[in-house]
Specification:
Layout lengths: L1 E8 L13 H16 L3 E6 L7 E4 L6 E4 L11 E6 L3 H9 L7 E7 L8 H6 L3 H9 L2
Antiparallel strand pairs: 1-5, 1-6, 2-5, 3-4
Length: about 140
């Protein structure tokens, strides 16, 4: 079962461009990332620049509209993520609890939808999706 663990740092929604974490916090997080890797469950992990240098594309009325960050209405934003492959939701939660997060951080855990989760008509509509994922992973 694949799960995405989403890091939501409070206050990051208003972080200035170029905001970076402290080296000691990164060192602690690297130990955690290495534990995930050594357990054989880490598929991917990345940190994200603050929303102040991001953009959002909305589709009101079916037409794309681009808005540059920061986003005044944002209450929670992603600071980074891990993709892990574990046996259960409970195992994903146990790994999230081991993260050296601070008082201002939240980890949201979301299971990735697998093709088998969908009804047959949806699986047929998504034919080729798994090959697409494999091709994207090679880049």
């Amino acid at each position: 079962m694949r799960f995405m663990m989403l890091m939501i740092p409070k206050g990051y929604e208003s972080a200035a461009p170029g905001t970076m974490p402290a080296a000691d916090a990164v060192a602690e997080m690297m130990k955690y990332n290495e534990a995930l890797q050594n357990a054989g469950i880490l598929m991917a992990c990345d940190g994200l620049h603050p929303p102040s240098v991001g953009a959002r594309v909305t589709f009101e009325g079916g037409k794309p509209k681009v808005s540059d960050g920061p986003f005044a209405e944002a209450k929670e934003v992603l600071g980074g993520y891990w993709m892990i492959n574990v046996k259960s939701r409970e195992e994903a939660i146990e790994w999230a609890k081991k993260c050296p997060g601070g008082d201002n951080e939240i980890i949201e855990i979301r299971q990735v939808q697998e093709m088998d989760d969908f009804p047959e008509d949806v699986q047929q509509a998504a034919a080729g999706f798994e090959a697409m994922q494999t091709g994207a992973a090679r880049r």
